[in-house]
Structures are given as C-alpha cells and as structure tokens.
Amino acid sequence: MTDAASKEDLLGAEDIVKSSGITGLFAAKPHHRNRATVFSLGSRQEVLTHDFLNPLIVPHAAQEANKKFQFEALFRSIHLAFVDHCSHEFLFLTDFFMVSGQTAIDLHAKVMGRAMAHMVRAFDERIAVNFDCISLHLCICLCDKFHRLLTEREIPSMSGYWEAISNQLWTRLAQVMQMHNDSVKALDVKRMQTPIDTRPHYIVRRYAELTCAFLVVTESSGRELGKKMEAILESCEDAVEQLLLRMSACLSNPRDRLVFLINNYDLTLGIIDERVVQDSRIHSIIHELEQKAIGEFVEATLQPHFSSLLTFVSECEPLVQQGHTHLLVRYNDKLIAVVQTFSANWRRSIDAINGEVVKSFTNFKNGTNILQAVFTQLVQYVQRFSKLVSHEIFRDNPARNDMVNIHHILVELKKYKPVY
After folding, report:
1. What is the per-residue pLDDT across 248-269, written as a single tens digit (0 to 9) for each?
2. Which among 240, 234, 37 is positioned nearest to 134, based on CA atoms?
3. Which of 139, 183, 189, 371 is a Cys-bridge partner for 12, taking CB atoms 3.0 to 4.6 Å apart?
4. Over the stretch 81-96, which tens digit does the pLDDT of each residue have?
5. Angle, CA of 119, 124 and 128, to the nearest 5°
6. How far apart are CA 406 and CA 386, in angstroms?
C-alpha cells in the first residue's frame, strides 16, 4: 500500500524533524514524516463514485508496474470481484438446478458460505492493523454500496456478510479515533516544540482536514451521517476543543486568547465549507463556538477604549428596567465625565480599534467582519447610552447637549467599511 498510516501518525503527534544525530557536511538529511494522506482526503472519495466500477487491480501487473494503492482501493477491487463472482454463481445455480425464490437463496448461501467465512477472517486480520481512519470510513461506505449493487442486480444481497465486515470496520475506526483523541488529550502544551501564538495551529488544521474528509466521504456515498459517525466527530471535536483551551491559556493576554480561538475555529470552518455542501451538526457546534468567542472579543476590544460608557450603560440600564429610576440621581456627575471622555477620544479610539482588529486575524475577510461587529456593538452602546441620557432624571444635566450626535459616528464608521 502507498504511504500507509502507522500507529505513530496520531492527531496529537508533534511534527518533529528526525535526524541521524550526525552534524556537519556528511550529516544525513533530516527525516520529516509526511502526514498529508493520513489526515487529508485528496481525491480518495472517488473510489465511491467514478472509480467504483473500475477494472480490477491485477496483483502481478501492478507489482511489475511498481504501483501502490490505498487500502480502500484494494478493498474495492477484491469486493468487486467477489460481488461479480456471487452474481455469476447465483445465475448459474438458478439455471443449472432450475430453482427460484427462497430455495435459490438458500442454495446460494450454502455454496458461498465458506468463501464468505474466509473473506471475513482474512479482512479481520487486515483491518485490525489498519491505522488509517479515512480508509476505514471509505470501506464502510463501500460495503453499503456493494450491498445496494447486489440488490439492484436482483442477487441475494448477503446482508450478514456486509454486516460482519462493517462491524469489523466500525470497531477498528472507533479504536483508531480513540487513539487520536487520547493523543490530543495527552499533549503537554507547555512542552511543545513550536511556541503558541495567535495563529491557527497545525494540529487544528489536521483535525479540520480529517473532519472534512469524513463529511465529504459521507456525501459522496449518498449515506446519512448516522449516529455512529456523529458520535465519533463530536468526541474528536471535544478533545480538540479542550486542547485549544489549554493552548489559549498559555497566552498571557486574554484578548490574544480569544484571537487564537477565533483563528482556529475560522480555519476549521473554512476547510469544511470549501468541500462540504450539506449542513452538519459538527459544523453548527464549531460555528457556535466561534460566534461565542467573537462576542467576547467584541466586548474585550471595546472595553479599553470606551470603558466608562460601557460601565455606565451596564449599571444604569438594570435600574431603569427594575423601576429604580430614583437611584439614577447618583450618576449625574458620572454622566458628565462619560460624555467628556467620549467626545474627546471617540475618533482616535475607532481608528485604534481598526488597527488592532485588522492585524489580529489571519483571514482578512473574517477580520473585517469582526471589525464591523465591533463597530455595530459600539453603535448599539451609544444608542442605549443616548436613551438613558434622555431620561427625565438627567433633564437638567448640561452633558446632554454635549453628547456626540450618532449621525457623526456613523459617518466616521463608514470610512472603515470593507470593499471586496
């Protein structure tokens, strides 16, 4: 097989460059494991579509041509030959023994029984040492397609055989995914060779590619995602989510932690959206996490620049809503300070926020969308503040006339509106 995955190719494995330990002119070239085929799909899903009924792989011809194949390609070829043989055998039995109905089905099962038992044993050995979760999922989908192919040919579908092989594959897939999840959980983020910054992490890229692969394979097979695969995806997402939180905790600035989370969520969603058409629960989970982090980032971005205004709104609004408006009197002096501070600094603060946000995110479009979310939230705070200022308790407060007109703020914000 080509570049077969091994037990070392785990989701949480660090990309370590291995060398011979000899330095100097005659040092061996550093070895770097290529994990591209382990976590990314490429065009392997075509085994379920364009390549499904391709000619069989002839072992000696492939060996002479020095060709290598993925596990699922060999699985498809062997089972296509098996399905064709079963089809021809059934037609022969019905013609030669002149049987039909259940009698023909029972005779066919008896004739093919030993062959099926041998296939189950042979694949059990191969599947047990397969560490490639993408190929395992492809083979599960192939079982379903071959089952349907026999039904379309009006040949006994051998449901028991496909169920036995599928169970082997599902069991192994669960084991391999547990190994991936355990490797992520066991990762010591404080001892990682690559320092953590706000950019997307390569382990998260692997996770995104792997999740995307599972979703694309499911789409290509024409199957529903199913509870088993949903459970596998959610378990893996939970392990990676906990890893992200541990990694973000290594960053000292709370705002940088949010940027790190958003960049990684955005990378994951971008990779999935690039190839997956159908909505999925796992996409919704990651999208919700991203939106939650963006909401927190928006507040964290506004706080240093407009803290007095935000504090005034958060303290006074509950008093109005609860009918304790007489307590607003104590905020008369604070209102003057808030208006003066805002009027003096709002333009400078908006420009500073623009610079901070645009530089924070690796995806320019995502960054500009978040910038607009920050400005939208600012406008809402100003509107809420204006509503509070218009309360009769503050009718004699001179600061009411000094408040910046929201129209001027909107005009200023338009300067930062992105043009794609």
Report:
1. 999 999 999 999 999 999 999 9
2. 37
3. 183
4. 999 999 999 999 999 9
5. 155
6. 9
DSSP 246-311: HHHTTSSSHHHHHHHHHHHHHHHHHHHHHH--S--HHHHHHHHHHHHHHHHHHHHHHHHHHHHHHH
The backbone torsions φ and ψ at residue 18, rounded to the nearest 5 degrees and listed phi first, read -100, 135
**Whole-number Å distance between alpha carbons of 71 and 125:** 13
SS3 31: strand
Report how far residue 409's alpha carbon sits from residue 346's, in angstroms, rounded to the nearest whole number.
Answer: 8
Task: Give Cα 138 distance to the centre of its chain.
Answer: 19
Residue 31, φ and ψ in degrees, nearest 5: -95, 130
Instruction: In whole angstroms, give the CA distance from residue 397 to residue 347.
Output: 24
State the number of CA atoms in the 13 A half-sphere of 41 facing the CB: 29
Q: How far is CA 313 from the centre of its chain?
A: 37
The partner residues of 18 in beta bridges, in order of sequence, read 31
Contact 214, 281 (CB under 8 A): no
For residues 356 and 258, give the distance between their C-alpha atoms in angstroms, rounded to a whole number: 13
Q: Please report, as a single letter, which amino acid is at residue 207.
A: Y
Q: Is the pTM of this model over 0.70?
A: yes
